[in-house]
Amino acid sequence: MKIIFTLVISLFLASCASYSVTEQQMQEYLDDRSGFERTVGVKGLAHANVKFENVKVGIGRVADDRVNLDADSKAKIMIQGQSSQLLQIKVSFSAVPYYDKDEGAIFLNDLNVEDVDIQPNEFNLPSKQLLSPIIEMVGQYLLTRPVYRLSDEDFKQSLLKTARPELLIKNHELVIQI
């Protein structure tokens, strides 16, 4: 009887030993939580008010082991003696996902800037001095917040939270498995 019980429990746990996070699930998670507005620079001299609005997610599309994120930002740049300018900044990042057991969440590491598109293309500003902090601010925001958190209310997810799962990318999904 003990053998049958052990076998049944083993089969049950084996069926619960992985959970896949799709691009859509990650997108919905980030849609509910992404977005901020900050100011960088020195007010009165040169500063930018940055509004980070949304992120588009791809899993394993840029590289097999990376998540790609396309972030949209608007920046109102003001320099003393010049009229303010409004820029649309689209930055494409790629990063390696990892699972943090203490948080029960997936975070990003090793963030790379893949592409930057700024509209309008021509503006009368010292671009690198102002745009680098804006891009760095968005990147730091993405690195310090989870891109997905396992739920305590879902039985399979709560079981995985207590284990030491491995995180893999398969078929454009993040697979958390024991």
From TrEMBL:
Pfam families: DUF1439. Residues 1-20 form the signal peptide. InterPro entries: DUF1439. Keywords: Signal. It comes from the Bacteria. This is Lipoprotein. It comes from Photobacterium gaetbulicola Gung47.
